[in-house]
Amino acid sequence: MVIHAPVRKRTKNSREARLIAVILGGGLLILVVFFGLPMVDLVFTSLSRWSGVGDRVFVGGENYLALLSDTSVHDSLARSVTLGLGTAVGISIIATVLAALVSGGIKGSNLYRVVWFLPAIAPPSAVAVFWALSVQPKSGVVNVVLGALGLGNDHAWLADPATALWVVIAVAIWQGAGFAFLVILGAMEEVPVSIYEAAAIDGTGPIRQFFSLTLPLIRPVLSMVLLLESIWAFNGFTLVWGMTEGGPGEATTILPVQVYQEAFHLGHFGAAGAISVVGGILLLIVGVVGNWLGSRRAVDE
Amino acid sequence: MSNHRSVIRRRAAAIAAAASIAALLLAGCTSTSPAKDLSLTVQVQAEQLTAFKYTAGLLEKKHPGLKVHLQTITGEQKNTTNAQVLASSNAPDVGIVPTNAQTYFDLMKAKKLIPLDDVWKSADLAARYGDTVAKSLKWNGTPYLALFDTVYYNVVFYNKDAFTKAGVKAPADRQIASNADLYALVGKLKAAGYDGLAVGGASGYQLGWLVDAQLQANASPAALHDFLTSWQSGNKQSVKYTSPKFTGSLAQLSEWGKHGVFQSGYVAASGDQAQAAFTSGTAAMMIGGTWIPSVLKKQSFDYDWLLLPGAGDTPTVPSIYAGDTLAIPTASKHKDLAKEYLEIYSSDKVQKYAAAKVGSLPAVNTVKASEVPDLGPLVQQVVKFTATKVGIGWTSTLPGGLGQTLIDSEAQKMLSGQSTPEEVGKSQQKEFETYKSDNG
Question: Is A268:A262 a contact under the CB 8 Å cutoff?
């Protein structure tokens, strides 16, 4: 008996180890098949000349070198950054203000929780079509309302390179604010009431409490929202394509739109692959930095 | 004891595996024997659905048990991602492959379509298409495509009520003679509260149409011929796209933009939005083609057609597009049935049906548009006009990545003030040189 007990324990441990290996192995296999292999294939495509069907011709770093001198890619990157940052900052500010109002017990807050979240559940393609039609000159509802107010009904914002991207950013904020609002509200409601009570006893007003207590305490969540919204907007193909297809001209062409156009309109899958790889690396860097900035450690430091 | 159990387990597993394989084999055998399990997948665009369904019905009647599945694809898909679909292992049996789409050139280079010599022979398509069209549908002398309709585009439809209200008279010969006449006409329409010409600047094809019409009117015959053929393998370019013979046509569009010829926000408007501007009475004119009367059947106002001016004294003419074609991918599992489908669609019976029901002009010369009264008087007039005056569309001829897709985006850029005609010419020339270095 004394001899058998450790053997049984060892067998049990070995079974557990095997089970863990099988579970982890399965997960790893799924990662390799659905993430690793496509990544390798993408990198290989970016090193090739390929029309999308047939054989690929290996060209080494030619596509990457071409990117360096291609001003249209630089412009697309700048627009992607503008869209990503503009949307994320806009969403974060609006969602934080809305969450603070609801958290502070504004009248009808239960209704606002639902209403402000509604745009977030609408399909992005439907949102794109709805807003693209709504801002059409003369017939679009926004122009009709402006016309009724005597402000003119002939504003063609999506046809103007100076305004088209800002309209897209506004729509992205409209759609994204609801989700961010719920997440930030959740974080605000996690802050212990006793902290506010103590601050109130010390004579701190609501606005000071918001800036000195609420914001620092929800910083990790806020940073995560900012990071995720930046990445989602940076990759926001559906909204841009649905509203403008990257136009007028290239005024709203962001990197994912350029990838699509290079690959499927022009048959340059190699160039599209190179743009995707560069965009992915940039987002990875943004993700790592953003993740660190939002961590408790960064808050402490 | 444990060894014995293990042997039993292994035997049981082997028996189960053998039984499964036998069941699969039996299932496989039974699925191929009767025709009732046969199915054919055919791609279709929504506009042609009625005619494709009719053809499917005829084929199903001929092969009891056969089921034809129609797979709807969009205009965007047929010109972009469809190459990957048709090159895949589960490709449909019949695919839409427009002759001027990048997909056609990519599929041909990758040898992903089967030759259709037998279909052409049995349906006598070479003679029924006519020499010019038949030649344009061949790849190195071999046919891989079957045409399902023809189209005339660059026809401007105008609201007769709006013209009357604005005190504008359409030219008797239907051709607006000059830019001055066009500007005067649009000016009167605007004074009466109408927008001018509705164009889908974001449609991805309508600005290219305008370029087609202008090149036909403005470029010399030799220059136009060069633009239409220099991209082909082995041909040398004699007129560069940076030449005024090309950029002059772009400058013409640029001038129209500056003179407010188009509707408000046209640069960002889709084809549907442009059509809506016309049908709602906001715009008094709309660019379109011979299929338009079939989609405007329930219009509350009368409309007629005219043609736009060129940059000089030569007005534009309608452009022909004979590139709506079907092909059979090498991955098709029912090639013989797919060929039969193409033969039936090419028959006079279906061609007449399609013309009457979906407003597409016949692809074959054995069916005359005049024999299909359902096409309506406007289409008959356009067809009659084109008997003597017709142009070959530049964007209808070049591969998409070099023609329609590229120029539409570049023209949109130019018309929204982001580039000049000369810069568009440079972009076009650059893409042309890249194409030639890749394709010879």
Answer: yes
